[in-house]
Amino acid sequence: MKLDVIKLDGGKAGSVELNEELFGLEPRADILHRVVRWQRNNAQAGTHKVKTRSETSYSTKKIYRQKGTGGARHGDRNAPIFRKGGIYKGPTPRSHGHELPKKFRKLGLKHALSAKARAGELVVIEDAAAEGKTAALAKQVANLGWKRALVIDGAQVNEGFARAARNIEGLDILPTMGANVYDILRRDTLVLTKAGVEALEARLK
Questions:
Q1: Taking Cα atoms as reference points, which of 199, 188, 143, 196 lies closest to residue 10?
Q2: What is the Cα–Cα distance from 152 to 175, expressed in whole angstroms?
Q3: Which residues contact 90 (CB under 8 A, 6 or more apart)?
């Protein structure tokens, strides 16, 4: 699979051969859904907590005698049936994450890349190098027509480009090891550098 390579100023810089095993698959929504669900569940904080009967701050004194009142038998005001009493089986801090095999995660990333390539939302640039000036990079991005774009560079992100991109809305940059299904799918355009393409092929071979 061949794709044209462009420069940040819009000029042509040759072409690159993309691996069909990474960029030429038939995207499967079920695989992408499972990987995104795994990512989002692992990211969920799970710190929500309520007070149980033993943690509320009412007195533990018996509120009325056991027999003869015609009402239910109660020991204290901490019972879940009372207002401001303890909560029965409420949420406690826990992990919402679940396991997903490493091979399946790798497959999900391949299908995400293939989905972008099939939709015509994949762009390959020569390199992501900038002088660190936000205004200059914002102008280049606007000329290229990128509104919500994710740039994936090689093993290391260019420092000047990262600094310039930091304040541009809708533009994110990640190193190859940070590439993930959720971030790829939620952006309109996926931009890979030539170094990023090589590093992804080495990572997913």
A1: 143
A2: 6
A3: 49, 50, 51, 52
Phi/psi of residue 192, each to 5°? -115, 140
Q: Which residue has the tokens 């299908």?
A: 111
Summarised one tens digit per residue, pLDDT across range 180-196 is 999 999 999 999 999 99
List the domains of the chain with CATH numbers. Answer: 2-45+96-204 (3.40.1370.10), 50-90 (no CATH)
Collapsing DSSP to helix, strand or coil, 126 comes out as coil
Give me the sheet containing 2-6, strands edge to edge: 12-17, 2-6, 122-125, 189-193, 149-152, 171-174
Convert the pLDDT of each residue in 11-34 to its tens digit: 888 889 999 999 999 999 999 999
pTM: 0.82
d(CA 126, CA 79): 67
Q: Are 133 and 43 in contact (CB under 8 A)?
A: no
